[in-house]
């Protein structure tokens, strides 16, 4: 079994899901009392917010180096937005990083879709680092058109979902945002923030939904047993 290092705490709420899904996946593969051999470096998300994501490379690099020095075989960044630095971190630490965007793109391509609606933090929706990974697999990516909508998703992810608060009014708004993406031609929806599945899921839609947390965890399990 390969050992993985999880850079979590971004936020701790979704890191709980990573630990749960990875261990469930490993046990399903190996049976008995088998579980994942892993280490978690849980960052203080308040430090990330104080610096803002775009200035947080050194915090993430420090976490990755701690995990590397502890003997991990690969690194997992437990947040879509953290992949802003995935390539640069991989170059620095000389360990593979299992990329959430790449794994999501593979899953969508395998399912036969070419146009995906993406919701996530404003960085994930507005910057190129994530969308380019999807476009490399021939996907057309749609994000909410209005700045105020993207800002609203950012605010609710940070102030509500990041602390585990589930607000029914926010859920209704997210459903409306997804409906608009579908009306614009989205064939499927990417829940491109690891906290968003806490609020909405496939159960809320008839259109296919790709939960990036679960997709990422499935890829991690595959890597660990390979």
TrEMBL record:
Keywords: Isomerase. PROSITE patterns: ASP_GLU_RACEMASE_1, ASP_GLU_RACEMASE_2. One of its GO terms (molecular function) is amino-acid racemase activity. The keyword Isomerase applies. Signal peptide: none annotated. InterPro entries: Asp/Glu/hydantoin_racemase (IPR015942), Asp/Glu_race (IPR001920), Asp/Glu_racemase_AS_1 (IPR018187), Asp/Glu_racemase_AS_2 (IPR033134), Asp_race (IPR004380). Pfam families: Asp_Glu_race. The keyword Isomerase applies. Coiled coil: none annotated. It comes from the Bacteria. Belongs to the aspartate/glutamate racemases family. PANTHER family: ASPARTATE-GLUTAMATE RACEMASE FAMILY (PTHR21198:SF7), GLUTAMATE RACEMASE (PTHR21198). This is Aspartate/glutamate racemase family protein. It comes from Chryseobacterium antibioticum.
């Amino acid at each position: 079994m390969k050992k993985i290092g999880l850079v979590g705490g971004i936020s701790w709420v979704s890191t709980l899901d990573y630990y749960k899904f990875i261990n469930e996946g490993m046990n399903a593969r190996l049976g008995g009392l088998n579980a994942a051999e892993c280490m978690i470096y849980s960052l203080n998300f308040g430090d990330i917010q104080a610096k803002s994501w775009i200035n947080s490379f050194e915090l993430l690099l420090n976490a990755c180096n701690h995990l590397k020095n502890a003997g991990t075989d690969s690194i997992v960044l437990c947040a879509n937005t953290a992949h802003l630095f995935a390539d640069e971190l991989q170059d620095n630490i000389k360990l593979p990083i299992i990329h959430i965007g790449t794994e999501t793109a593979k899953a969508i391509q395998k399912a036969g879709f070419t146009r995906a609606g993406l919701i996530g933090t404003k960085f994930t929706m507005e910057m190129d680092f994530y969308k380019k990974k999807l476009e490399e697999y021939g996907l057309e990516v749609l994000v909410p058109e209005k700045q105020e909508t993207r800002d609203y998703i950012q605010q609710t992810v940070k102030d509500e979902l990041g602390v585990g608060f589930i607000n029914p009014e926010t859920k209704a708004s997210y459903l409306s945002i997804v409906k608009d993406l579908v009306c614009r031609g989205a064939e499927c929806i990417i829940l491109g923030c690891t906290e968003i599945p806490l609020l909405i899921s496939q159960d809320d839609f008839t259109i296919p939904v790709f939960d990036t947390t679960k997709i990422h965890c499935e890829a991690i399990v595959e890597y660990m047993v390979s």
